[in-house]
Design brief:
Structural class: alpha/beta
Strand order of the largest sheet: 2-1-3-4
Helix content: 25-40%
Largest sheet: 4 strands, parallel
Radius of gyration: 18 Å
Shape: globular
Order of helices and strands: EEHEHEHHEHEEHEEHEEH
Number of helices: 8
Distance between the termini: 16 Å
Number of domains: 3
Length: 229
């Protein structure tokens, strides 16, 4: 197993930087480990390149694309039994207000945005959110009703350091999309956790405790891929 990573890892598993990997001809299982899995970012090309080489790779390029598009993320999550909310994907304010009532949560669909979401409590705020997240109305947005408390948290290999309900959602999202590191946005209402969105982590958000979890998971995965004896 080869780990392709832009993060310094403290372990004995063979590791290479993304730039070096994209110049290599490595054959074998590839773990694409980075903080930013947005479509068209370096991590996306790492997975594409691994697939071109014929390597099994986690995450796959398809999983990266699906996880980075909120409507697809929620549709696949819903089919996997993860609770989600009603939503509409459009760039038309009228369509949004006819389908949903305020307050609303607006997520970007375009592949270039790093912002997680914006809350719109009225029509003017909705216009601002759609214009901002849609890059001046060039892209659609994914809009959901705001029905409960919004919680944003890190998921590292499907693990988080919060309560069991949030842990369950993190685990299920990882099982479906195999994104090693991300930030999940959920709404909590009447003890039900609704998945709302997924966002890349910033490098500065990865703490020492996260590196410990990453090292443990990479070590365990290495033993599964390369069993001894």
């Amino acid at each position: 197993m080869l780990v392709v990573s832009n993060i310094d890892l403290n372990q004995n598993v063979p590791t290479i930087t993304p730039s070096k990997f994209l110049e290599s001809a490595f054959k074998g299982f590839t773990l694409n480990l980075t903080n930013d899995y947005r479509y068209l970012k370096t991590a996306y090309y790492v997975s594409v390149y691994a697939e071109i080489l014929g390597n099994p790779v986690v995450p796959s390029s398809k999983d990266i694309i699906d996880a980075s598009r909120t409507p697809i993320l929620l549709l696949k999550a819903e089919k996997a039994g993860i609770p989600t909310l009603p939503r509409i994907t459009t760039d038309k304010i009228k369509e949004i207000t006819e389908a949903l009532q305020f307050p609303l949560v607006v997520f970007a669909v375009n592949p270039f945005s790093y912002d997680g979401y914006k809350i719109a409590k009225n029509r003017s705020a909705l216009y601002r959110a759609v214009k901002s997240l849609g890059i001046n109305y060039k892209f659609a947005v994914c809009v959901q009703p705001l029905i409960g408390e919004i919680i944003s948290f890190k998921s590292v290999f499907g693990k988080c350091r919060l309560d069991q309900d949030l842990q369950n959602v993190a685990r299920k999202v990882y099982e479906v999309f195999k994104i090693p590191m991300c930030r999940l946005h959920v709404q909590l209402k009447n003890s039900t956790v609704y998945l709302c969105g997924l966002q890349p982590l910033r490098r500065e958000d990865i703490l020492d405790e996260d590196l410990e979890t990453i090292s443990e998971e990479v070590s365990a995965l290495s033993k599964m891929v390369n069993p001894v004896g």
